[in-house]
Design goal:
binds zinc ion; globular; eight-stranded mixed sheet; Aminopeptidase
Length: about 425
């Protein structure tokens, strides 16, 4: 308790301050309200490697294997470390996360499958789990992506991924609403985008407050790229990241220089089928701040190239609707502090995927990035209704402003089948 305020403020400052910001004291009002957060992240262009529609988990067949066979190469038990979050209870290490996802998939083989979409800098498998009816088939249903743990110290986001896996699989066939959502969508969950950083953050019983990955910066003794500043849409454009390798928001020497970003970006590009991006909506999970944010992050302007007034209205309407049920604060990402090279900007700017960034508990101050294990259950379940609402609109978010016919070629009714959007220009 004694030093926590200091630590928290340090994180806050580091988080709020993008490269340029490091020089500018975080004293404007927004910073005072927005705790420390690191920044949200998410997405970009180039559509290559179109995939054929047949094999869903086709990507990287050589890597694909049964979840239980994904033996972690670096077994470190986060949960058993004395210095782990909450003194150890409740949190899953990388190995435990992989094992838990494997158990869930094995218990629900008809609606859940996992695959490895890439490899981290240190060689850990990057896992994605698909949940849908007829899970082995790439059906023509709107797709949704959840990404977790871009930032190493944000361990609560991995627990959020496991919560969602349990919710959607165990609710299937029991809860009518969940059953309908699983039947009508293809839901992808990436529980851990940054396993190297996450393991390092708690290695040896420490709490390092680590944010980045573990990749050495070229020509420097510094280690780590901020994954959420490394995505290829307007990368490094706007003073919302740092070019200094030692900085918390170091954007890397080039966009997609981080293998973790490249792998996930390649996977998203691989969801372009017949020229159409299949993913309609996305949530990138972070902590902390209790915020629901939407693009753009690289500007404070409400509208910008690629983001119209209607887009903005739809983002805000669904953002506020979700915030009304989880108690978070809805806002445009750039209103908190400008950030560039984020996953959210890439997803929207490149593919017109509706991309939200959720900053989880706490709102500010202690316990910061390390909530006690007892907070995991309530703080993940807190997002249940928001996520279900998100899934209900995910096929056509414009529907929330009455724009289904115009933007999605579909009816306006709540049960309207989501139409396919034209390929992004
Ligand atoms: Zn984060």
């Amino acid at each position: 308790m004694r030093r926590r305020p200091i630590v928290a403020r340090t994180f806050l400052a580091l988080a709020c301050l993008g490269g340029v910001a490091l020089h500018a004291p975080a004293l404007h009002a927004p910073a005072l309200h927005a705790p420390a957060l690191h920044a949200p992240a998410l997405h970009a262009p180039a559509l290559h490697a179109p995939a054929s529609r047949a094999p869903v988990l086709r990507a990287r067949a050589p890597h694909a294997r049964a979840p239980h066979a994904q033996a972690p190469r670096v077994p470190v038990s986060r949960a058993s470390l004395p210095g782990s979050p909450a003194g150890g209870s409740g949190y899953h290490s990388y190995a435990e996360t992989v094992a838990e996802a494997g158990r869930i998939v094995a218990a629900h083989p008809g609606i859940a499958r996992s695959a490895v979409y890439g490899t981290s800098y240190e060689g850990r498998d990057l896992l994605v789990v698909k949940i849908s009816d007829n899970v082995a088939v790439d059906e023509d249903e709107p797709e949704v992506l959840f990404t977790h743990h871009q930032h190493a110290r944000e361990h609560l986001t991995v627990e959020m991924a496991l919560y969602l896996l349990h919710l959607l699989t165990e609710g299937y066939g029991r809860d009518e609403r969940i059953t309908g959502l699983v039947d009508g969508h293809e839901i992808w969950i990436m529980p851990d985008l940054n396993p190297d950083g996450g393991e390092y953050d708690l290695a040896g019983g420490s709490r390092r407050g680590w944010r980045k990955n573990r990749q050495p910066a070229p020509g420097s003794s510094a280690v780590g790229t901020d994954l959420n500043r490394n995505w290829p849409y307007l990368w490094g454009c706007c003073g919302g990241s740092s070019g200094s390798p030692a900085a918390q928001t170091y954007r890397g020497p080039a966009s997609e220089s981080a293998p973790e970003v490249r792998a996930a970006a390649d996977w998203v590009r691989g969801r372009v089928v017949d020229g159409v991006q299949q993913i309609r909506a996305h949530i990138d999970w972070h902590s902390y701040g209790e915020l629901i944010m939407w693009p753009y992050g690289h500007t404070r302007a409400d509208t910008a190239p690629g983001l119209t007034r209607d887009d903005r209205a739809a983002y805000a309407a669904l953002g506020r609707s979700m915030a009304a049920v989880n108690g978070y604060t809805p806002r445009q990402a750039g209103d908190r502090y400008v950030m560039d090279g984020t996953l959210g900007d890439w997803m929207w700017g490149t593919f017109k995927i509706f991309s939200y960034t959720f900053e989880m508990y706490p709102a500010r101050g202690a316990p910061g990035f390390y909530p006690p294990g007892g907070r995991i259950a309530p703080q993940t379940a807190r997002n249940r209704e928001a996520v279900l609402r998100f899934l209900e609109y995910s096929g056509c978010v414009h529907r929330i402003i009455g724009g289904a016919a115009r933007y999605c070629g579909a009816g306006e009714g709540p049960a309207a089948a989501p139409g396919r959007r034209p390929a992004p220009a």
